[in-house]
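Question (not urgent): is this output format expected?
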Amino acid sequence: KKLRKLRLQRSVEMQLGRKRKAEEMSDSSGGSSDEDEDGSDSGSEAERGLAGRLPGAMSAAELKATPSRARTKAERLARVQAGRVDFKDKLAEKRKGRKGGKTNIEQKRNKPLMMSMNSGNVRKKKARNAHEKVKTMKKHIKTLKQNAKRPKIRRKG
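Got this back:
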């Protein structure tokens, strides 16, 4: 009986998500001592009156015993599709709520490719000789090594 009582107390502690204080345990177990002495052990009815028992709660053992529901692949896919949000609609809504025009990122994305390819920076890059390419690659590798030590800070969006 003591072992069973301890198990039930532990299951209550698991349900509450914390350890209960000693005085709370003693208060709740005071009224249930006469029920434990009775010879009738009718399963869950005997458990209901034990120390710290919540009125409509389930014990940890009962939770473990409940079988998982088997779902078909079609049901799972339907549930996933129901939870998805159309990204284009979300972006359009965001754009409507904004006060100004297009952001710089949107402007860069929609810029004509030939215009970018004929820019001064790109033409300089194309004209570089092998020595300059190696030099810039070494510099790039050096910065990558420095930045690999700390995590990237990303904006929430």
